[in-house]
Amino acid sequence: MIEHHVRVHPSADRLPREDQLAWKLATVATGTVEPDPESAAMAVNRVIDNASVAMASLVRRPVAVARAQATAHRASTPGTGARVFGAQGRVSPEWAAWANGTAVRELDFHDTYLAADYSHPGDNIPPILAVAQHTGRTGEDVLRGVVAAYELHVALVKGICLHAHRIDHVAHLSAATAGGIGALLRLPTETVYQAIQQAVHTTTSTRQSRKGEISSWKAYAPAFAGKAAIEAVDRAMRGETSPSPIYEGEDGFLAWMLDGPDADYTVWLPEAGEARRGILDTYTKEHSAEYQAQALIDLARRMGEKIPLDRVASIVLHTSHHTHNVIGSGANDPQKYDPKASRETLDHSVPYIFAVALQDRAWHHERSYAPERAARPDTIALWQKITTVEDPEWTRRYHDPDPQQRAFGARAVVTLDDGTVIEDELGVADAHPAGARPFDRPAYQGKFRTLAENIVTPEAQDRFLGAAEHLAELSASDLDGLFPEVDTEAVAAYDAKLPKGVF
């Protein structure tokens, strides 16, 4: 790996493009060769993972709205268009990326990578797959694009913190997606360089989408970034240029959105010819909740049998800065304790999640968030007794440079009404690569079958899994097999009930 220092430069410096981060990212993308076996296998796992959560969200309102918008934009020419989960026919690729990206993100249930910033690298897959279908690329091309996108995404998330400045993490996503599409299409470095800069410039937004009363935009934000990345690549391919240098410019991303004129970041990128293995640093979710709640759900399931819940006086979760301030009581969001809060808010509320997991000793992507579940008086009473505090040791563990030592959990201190204290802790979720039950291919397959139950027939489930597992061998026409067959008439009947929009 090569260490790249990224800092702000005045325009008078005329920073050579070869010294700019966007060029270096583009060089990694366009220099990506066919993935090594481990990276390719993990990419297959994430294709399965994305389809799993997309199937479970098909008749959720934000997904249906995105699908309705997409199906109003039939395939553009030249090209054959791209498929949309749950719909017939083909649509223009940027709109397929919009609909499929929303379906993948809606339940907050696919993969994650946490370092200096947050990310869901699986969000790169829908736009890459959409462009591949539209342009007649193969499964082998898709794999190359996905592995390249993950490589860029992981490098940016390791090196540049966005959330400290309340910038949403999709700014890193759009750069990675543009690079992944460039790798997919084997575009020149110059073209990918321009596309990355356009994508970053047009998708920088604030974290208000994940603050307070969290709305459905949380599901749309990464889909919007993917759509914008496709459009940026299209413009760059036509010879259009971009704000440059987007990262280092004196009026650019670092200077005004992040650490300011004195900004100085370090981004590690692979050398020419070095394997792209960033995807292996990422991990998926066993539970439908924000990633920093994964270990806490497992901890609560373990502790629930040891705690007389009707005698709890208080529960304090000692955890990292990120967990305390983003999904804990340190966020100072009263909505995190509101039984009438949206699902999007509740899946970013550790007090709520820990309370329900303690009581149920289980977690379900729908039942655990049902309004009647959140409104149970005994749940509300327990929920209000749960707070978080930042523990410097947990913050240090969160940022440990060794992936095997990095921890995203907490220590739970439960005080009963007679003063008895019960404590337990868990560093990583059971499904994490360093956890008690690391997710493997059978686990991904099981997740798909569970979430596709009653939506995809067993025979259609088998066909999808067979196609996904042979991704590298799929022809352009075979890529349709990555879209599980569902009862599209039933989905269309749900869609017909939606209010109409401009399209």
Count of helices? 20
Please, what is the CATH homologous superfamily of the largest domain?
Answer: 2-methylcitrate dehydratase PrpD
Report the C-alpha radius of gyration, rounded.
22 Å
Strand proportion, as a percent range, falls in 5-15%
- CA-based shape: globular
Going by helix content, strand content and strand pairing, the class is: alpha+beta
Main sheet? 4 strands, mixed
The termini sit apart by 47 Å
Calculate the mean pLDDT score and round it: 95
Query: Which sequence of SSEs, written as H and E, runs from N to C?
Result: EHHHHHHHHHHEHEHHHHHEHEEHHH
Q: What oligomeric arrangement do these chains adopt?
A: single chain
Question: What fraction, in percent, of the residue positions are helical?
Answer: 40-55%
Q: What CATH architecture of the largest domain do you see?
A: Orthogonal Bundle
| Whole-number total of structural domains | 2
CATH topology of the largest domain: 2-methylcitrate dehydratase PrpD
Strand order of the largest sheet: 4-3-5-6
Number of DSSP E strands: 6
Which spans of ≥5 residues are poorly predicted at pLDDT below 50?
none
